[in-house]
Specification:
Chain lengths: 741, 232
């Protein structure tokens, strides 16, 4: 097949811009070959190069705490947890593939993030996710929702890693462009930590795992443009997942890492062989000579261009210590996997690509990668117009609800509040037998076998808040994630982020992005949770407009003693319920405003990071001193929704409560306010006095709400709802919608 | 003597290490992995076929594992009266291998399901159940996409007559109703034994509830029953 002539027009079709084309000509000192053009276009795509985001990302706290490698340096972040162990974790988006092919898009999202973890030498121990869709009333949304959940489930279930926590939101803003963010957490003995590096002249370079096909070509480029009516034709850009092969790849990889036969290893995700060869070489300040004839192919007649750009899943690139090739091959053969030497490390800094007796590409590896020659842009910023209106929203103009009980039941029935059991019952949440607290509580808690510790983990972001105030809203996302970790008994350790935004060439989008990063940096510094890495997904736009800016936070915390593990739900009759923190009647962006009044407006709730930190320290100290029987953070749906959850989350033993909720200016405001830095706790009656003394020593406001008792939730002077009714709403709303009732 | 459990590892098994941990670390029994390409059962007293997705299970579950080299040895072992226990995918493999009667269909919901279920013990007079306290319901999780057990009328009446139905899905108060059946299994069947009483398959995962750290040890009643029968 004759290759097309490489021209500026062809470069434009590849998504490159004029100044990038000129830069390529300058780097090479000549016109690139067709294969080279393909390599540059994927490596300099937004997805691989972070060209429009890296300048902002560098302002985040990327070291400190117990961080072992700085953000972006390796496949995933790494944090010391003692006992010679480290935890590796990372979150990544698979939004665009999931929009056109939900099942495979989501499945390969899970597969990709898992490989990032085990290429560090870590065994994956848990999977999390953060999912956003349009309104569930829409049949396309239900199709996407169902497909994404099955894709995540089928991949993780077969791969044998429990899916333990996450979040699912529904909002019209995500109608044409759902967000699918997958996070993985792994554990590694510090001496087995492995790097994504190639060095040492003459060391062999091997491709292992699946054979290479035409699937996913230009996936990275597809991810770097807006979704449109034409996107359906991009279905071939979506990769196909094979969790069985990945499971074999995991076992084989960990085996060769443990034996010390590797120099380095990298997953082949976006941009496939192009990305792994150039990044590993650039990191080792070396080069590579690659012969594509050696790459196991699953299709006939593939060109060098196609092989270099294929995003076939379940493949990795290994740089092996010379002399250990046969040993490495024997391990992969034992697991019935391909393992071929495709080249060797050189010291000229160049990527030489040969195929069928021809030199197809010669590119300096450093020029292709982020931190090297990849372009870096700082885009124009402009505050969006809509904020002028939303900030000035007059809450007093809202009509008072006539029937407060009906209003509560309606808010509580929101798909954003009710249980996501329909989702997580399709996930294996228990395999590996470490799940102490699974989905449904504030954060998941995963046992670390052989120690007396556990990890707690969560993903979080209320994107309506971020839409209304990108900086403060992002602070809230970090604060809420940390609060959830603390409520489960853990100390927050670090953050991974998945930044889902619109088109960065729109000044309003870029302003949102920069503001969000500023807020995230401030909050992460306050909680001493460095950002260990993550992923940026721009171009999340569907027909009319950008999605809500959604900087998803994934956080991991350490539970230092299993006795500290705390769950959200009420335990025993007679326990006393307290509210820690106080209400400021924050209704902006609330679920109440959206569900009852169909309005997304106002400012996001106020967040005072100093107060938040004191609150978290206090709660953790109370947990460690054995005061607290349950702790649940107040979020969407306000205090009354949180109380209802405390009553019924434990399906085996629902238990009622009798409480009085302090009312400030209006009943609806007080019940549904989403003021931050608030936690509902319950304690044993006998500890009441000591507890109050202890809390008075701090400056944290608190109030006694009432008692755990009976078979209804009684909000004194207002209404009463029996447990059966609450449980029916909470656990059956989504199943009813999905079965078409 | 300390009983020895051989745990078969197929490519795609993912509950093999969980079974090993439950047997070796929690109970201090001997336990060893057996590779699917081998045929040596290494003098095991009990063979465990663990849960997972053997060979990816892209065809019918267990359909390929049934042809692996080790399965011939397992069949021979069972025919001589050796104790074999299949959990989840292991149960599916036992059905495919003809060591237990019936077949597994997709869950009636057509969805994977993972949650705790309650099981009634239908026959206490077996080596798998005779040390379970009488009338105790076991709370054990299921995690499968194809756990909808089916057999023809004649097979079912034979199973009943021979007391081969070992576990049924029940409510927390012990009623075998539709609401407590997680997958649509005929007669709420969760686990079976063969006529001879030495081969058992069950969909729920007892190895997932042996460690007190996880808050539930009901699964261990089954392993302890097996072990005590070997010791005696």
């Amino acid at each position: 097949m004759k290759e097309p002539e490489v021209t500026f027009e062809l470069a434009l079709e590849h998504g490159l811009i004029k100044e990038e084309w000129e830069k390529i000509l300058k780097i090479l000192g000549r016109t690139p070959t067709f294969t080279e053009l393909g390599i540059f276009s994927v490596m300099w795509s937004e997805h691989c190069s972070y060209k429009n985001s890296i300048a902002q990302l560098k302002t985040l706290p990327r070291s400190g705490g117990r961080l072992l490698v700085a953000a972006g340096e390796e496949n995933a972040g790494l944090i010391d947890i003692g006992d010679d162990l480290a935890v590796a974790f990372k979150i990544e988006s698979h939004n665009h593939p999931s929009a056109v092919e939900p099942y495979q898009g989501a499945a390969t999202g899970v597969g990709g993030i898992m490989r990032d973890i085990f290429t560090m030498g870590a065994r994956p121990i848990a999977s999390l996710n953060s999912l956003r869709f349009g309104s569930l009333k829409d049949s396309r949304t239900r199709y996407l929702f169902d497909g994404v959940v099955r894709g995540i489930g089928d991949y993780g279930n077969s791969f044998g890693v429990p899916t333990v926590a996450g979040e699912v939101y529904f909002d019209e803003s995500y109608q044409g462009n759902p967000l699918v963010n997958a996070m993985a957490v792994g554990i590694v003995n510090k001496k087995h930590v492995t790097s994504a590096i190639a060095k040492g002249v003459g060391n062999p370079v091997m491709i292992v795992g699946s054979s290479t096909g035409r699937d996913g070509i230009h996936g990275a480029t597809f991810a770097s443009e807006e979704i449109s009516e034409k996107s359906e034709s991009k279905r071939p850009s979506v990769q196909v997942g094979d969790p069985f092969t990945e499971k074999l790849l995991l076992e084989a990889t960990l085996e060769i890492i443990k034996n010390g036969w590797l120099i380095g290893i990298q997953d082949m995700g976006a941009a496939g062989i192009s990305c792994s060869t150039s990044e590993m070489s650039a990191k080792g300040k070396s080069g590579m000579k690659i012969n594509l004839d050696k790459v196991p192919l699953r299709e006939d007649g593939m060109t060098a261009y196609e092989i270099m750009l294929s995003e076939s899943q379940e493949r990795m690139l290994c740089c092996v210590k010379k002399g250990y090739e046969e040993k490495v091959k024997a391990v992969f053969e034992k697991w019935d996997l391909n393992c071929e030497i495709i080249g060797e490390v050189t010291d000229d800094g160049l990527l030489h690509i040969d195929y069928q007796g021809e030199r197809k590409a010669t590119i300096p590896a450093f020029e292709l990668v982020l931190g090297g020659g990849a372009p870096v842009y700082i885009r124009e910023q402009k505050e969006p117009e809509y904020l002028k209106h939303t900030r000035n929203f007059n809450f007093q103009s809202l009509p008072q609800p006539k029937n407060i009980k009906d209003t509560f039941l309606k808010v509580f029935s929101s798909p954003n509040i009710v249980s996501k059991q329909w989702v997580y019952h399709q996930y294996d949440t228990m395999v590996r037998t470490n799940t102490i607290v699974g989905p449904g509580c504030d954060a998941a808690v995963i046992y670390i076998k052989g120690t007396s510790k556990a990890l707690s983990m969560k993903t979080d972001c209320n994107s309506r808040y971020v839409y209304l105030n990108p900086k403060e809203g992002t602070k809230i996302a970090v604060a809420e994630c940390a609060r959830n970790i603390v409520c489960s008994g853990g100390i927050p350790l670090g953050v991974t982020n998945c930044l889902n935004f619109g088109n960065p060439y729109k000044p309003e989008v870029y302003w949102q992005f920069a503001q969000a990063i500023a807020g995230m940096g401030e909050a992460c510094r306050k909680f001493d949770t460095p950002v260990t890495g993550g992923n940026v997904s721009f171009y999340n736009e569907s027909p009319d407009t950008a999605v809500y800016p959604t900087p998803t936070i994934g956080m991991v915390g350490l539970v230092e003693d299993l006795n500290h593990i705390t769950t959200s739900y009420f335990k025993d009759e007679g326990d006393v319920i307290y509210l820690i923190g106080e209400d400021n009647e924050d209704l902006g962006g609330s679920e109440y405003l959206k569900i009852i009044h169909n309005i997304v407006s106002g400012n996001c709730p106020e967040i005072d990071l100093d107060k938040e930190k004191k609150l978290q320290q206090t709660i953790l100290s109370l947990i460690r001193n054995g005061f607290i029987k349950s702790a649940h953070d107040i979020s969407e749906g306000g205090i009354v929704s949180a109380l209802a959850e405390c009553c019924i989350i434990n399906q085996e033993k629902p238990i009622g409560c009798e409480v009085e909720i302090p009312v400030k200016s209006r009943i609806d405001f007080s019940l549904f306010s989403e003021s931050q830095s608030r936690i509902i706790i319950s304690i044993s009656n006998s500890k009441q006095k000591d507890f109050e003394v202890k809390l008075q020593e701090t400056v944290i406001p608190f109030s006694k709400l009432g008692l755990v008792r009976g078979k209804s939730m009684i909000i004194k002077n207002l209404f009463e709802v029996p447990m059966e009714e609450l449980s029916d709403i909470y656990f059956n709303t989504i199943p009813r919608i999905m079965s078409g009732e | 003597m300390n009983p020895k459990f051989g745990i078969v590892v197929f490519p795609g098994s993912n509950c093999d290490h969980d079974a090993y941990y439950a047997l070796k670390k929690i109970n201090n029994y001997d336990a060893e992995f057996l590779w699917h390409k081998d045929t040596d059962l290494k003098n095991s007293d009990v063979i465990i076929l663990p849960g997972g997705f053997s060979y990816g299970d892209y065809l019918r579950t267990g359909a390929i594992a049934r042809f692996s080299p080790i399965i011939n040895s397992v069949i021979g072992f069972a025919e001589k009266g050796g104790i074999v226990m299949g959990v989840c995918n292991g149960f599916q493999i036992l059905l495919e291998a003809g060591l237990l009667p019936g077949v597994m269909l997709n869950n009636i919901s057509l969805k994977f399901v993972c949650k705790d279920v309650f099981l009634s013990v239908e026959n206490y007079d077996t080596i798998f159940t005779n040390h379970i306290p009488s009338k105790k319901l076991l709370k054990i999780p299921v995690a499968h996409g194809e756990g909808n057990y089916f057999a023809d009328e004649q097979t079912l009446s034979e199973l009943e007559r021979n007391k081969q139905i070992l576990f049924r899905y029940v409510s927390s108060s012990g009623i075998a109703d539709e609401a407590s059946n997680p997958n649509g299994s005929v007669m709420n069947i969760a686990g079976l034994i063969n006529k001879r009483g030495n081969v058992m398959g069950l969909m729920p995962h007892p190895e997932r509830c042996c460690d007190s750290v996880l808050g539930n040890t009901d699964g261990n009643f089954i392993f302890k029953s097996i072990a005590r029968n070997i010791i005696n």
